[in-house]
Write a structure and sequence with these properties.
mainly alpha; two-stranded antiparallel sheet; 4 strands; binds zinc ion
């Protein structure tokens, strides 16, 4: 007699399927979707090949469906308004001060890996709307210039 388990997604007790001895999510559609999402999130975090492959596939899809988001936004005004207000919130939370350092080595602390706003130097102090959000991974620390 098999014993019941608690689903990792919904927490309800379920009887594992005979052919899935290590089943950790119940068979409901919602929990199976949660299982796939958890699997994909874990792969994206831990598998750089998978991450690169996903990024390439998404870029290829975007190239073939260049009007998708424009049409989606036109058909879903509530989505757009929510997106705008959430972005306003994020912008307000971010204590963004434009940095115009001539010499990155003189920064009080070296730049660490993380997300940065990237904009053209001529627009850096005015146009935050056109800034790219980029992720920078530091491979080596800056060294002091020779005296
Ligand atoms: Zn469940």
């Amino acid at each position: 007699m098999k014993s019941t388990r608690l689903c990792l997604a919904c927490g309800n007790a379920f009887l594992p399927l005979l052919h899935v001895p290590r089943q950790r999510y119940c068979s409901s559609k919602t929990c199976q979707r949660a299982r796939r999402r958890d699997w994909q999130n874990s792969r994206l975090r831990n598998d750089s090949d998978y991450r690169d492959n996903q990024a390439r596939a998404q870029a290829k899809w975007r190239a073939g469906h260049s009007s998708y988001w424009r049409e989606y936004r036109a058909a879903h005004p509530a989505y757009c308004e929510r997106n705008r207000s959430m972005q306003r919130l994020r912008n307000a939370r971010r204590s963004f001060r434009p940095i115009a350092k001539m010499d990155a080595i003189r920064l009080p602390r070296p730049l660490g890996s993380g997300f940065y706003l990237l904009s053209h130097a001529d627009d850096a102090s005015v146009a935050k709307m056109n800034a790219w959000t980029v992720h920078i991974a530091v491979l080596s620390a800056p060294t002091a210039p020779p005296p």
